[in-house]
Structure prediction request, 146 residues.
Amino acid sequence: METITHGSISLERGLEGDHKGLKFRNRAITVLAIEDWRTALAELSDLADPAALPWTARRANLLVEGVRLPRARGAILSVGPVQLEVTYPTQPCARMDEAHQGLLKALHPDWRGGVTCRVLAGGDIMIGDVVHVVSSPPERARARLP
Prediction:
């Protein structure tokens, strides 16, 4: 993983430099909310310092703060000039447990692993760009067993 302060997102390639956008248009961009990341880390009781596990362990393209990511397919997000359509919750993979045992399970509830998106409108983005939910279908809650 490489952290960058600015990047270019296109319909054809997703985030410039990331190979997945070219192959998987419906999941070209992954977005993680820092608040959801912190909630997941709080469930890892053996983690003395949650800051010790950086958000890059999640392997998302974008980290956002101060916006609740929609938990509904078809929602539209804007990041600066970029428009993204939520296609799925990001499914955490086994690499999460390689980063820290139990992280996979902690990221699974309530879309904590973030959202995968299709690019509707590309552009250049940078740290500090405004992020907001343009529209979102109603969210459906699922019953969970203990």
Notes: The chain has a mean pLDDT of 88.
